[in-house]
Write a structure and sequence with these properties.
Length: 237
């Protein structure tokens, strides 16, 4: 169990450090040309690389919503989920703290939004709470369908991390203007406490929506798309 938890901690750390780091460090300089597309790709690459690196150990969740969705779909043990959530959140906090220390080494730097998520005044495009809630639910549901489908026994092994990483890239390309893209409560929580924008007050949505979306996606897969699937962890354990 300790190996699984260590893998989840490191994988979530990598996701937040790489994905949010691309926004905090690289996207802050327009001349680098990274933009929304670069940040979206960075998030996809973090999941792709860590799914290959440690997915066989822990299942490669790196996200409390994914852990919940896999449990709902019968692919993950409910009893292990609380510990997964704890280490995922710790990994996100440690990554955000590391980013803060690095970014604050630049003279005159201030955290600002610090890659946090938000709606209304905290949305990159000024989108409403209702819009943020709906897009986070829909995209997390879709993400779970991709994860469950890509890791199905009917699919040739070894390619799932590519599909999952590309799905997360697509998700970010769609929703960065709306919420700065969460679909991951740990990612949202880790950076919110370093932001200067009051992002913590909106964290409830970025827990509620991904968890609801993950459950919906898992139910769609379990009862409509893959009802014959037997119980198996995402990592094939």
């Amino acid at each position: 169990m300790m190996q699984k938890l260590a893998a989840e901690f490191f994988g979530t750390f990598w996701l937040v450090f790489g994905g949010c780091g691309s926004a905090v460090l690289a996207a802050a300089f327009p001349e680098l040309g990274i933009g929304f597309a670069g940040v979206a790709l960075a998030f996809g690459l973090t999941v792709l690389t860590m799914a290959y690196a440690v997915g066989g150990i822990s299942g490669g969740h790196f996200n409390p919503a994914v852990s919940l969705g896999l449990a709902v779909a019968g692919r993950f043990s409910w009893s292990e989920m609380p510990l997964y959530w704890v280490v995922q959140i710790l990994g996100a906090f440690c990554a955000a703290g590391s980013l803060f220390l690095i970014a604050s080494g630049q003279p005159g730097w201030s955290p600002g939004g610090f890659a946090s998520n938000g709606f209304g005044d905290l949305s990159p495009g000024g989108y409403s709470m209702q819009a943020a809630l709906l897009i986070e639910i829909l995209l997390t549901a879709g993400f779970l369908v991709v994860i469950l489908g890509a890791t199905s026994k009917k699919v040739r092994g070894g390619f799932a991390p590519i599909a999952i990483g590309l799905a997360l890239t697509l998700i970010h390309l769609i929703s960065i203007p709306v919420t700065n893209t969460s679909v991951n409560p740990a990612r949202s929580t880790g950076v919110a406490f370093y932001a200067e924008t009051g992002a913590v007050s909106q964290l409830w949505l970025f827990w509620l929506a991904p968890l609801v979306g993950a459950a919906i996606g898992a139910l769609i897969w379990r009862y409509l798309l893959g009802p014959e699937e037997s119980l198996a962890n995402i990592g094939g354990e």
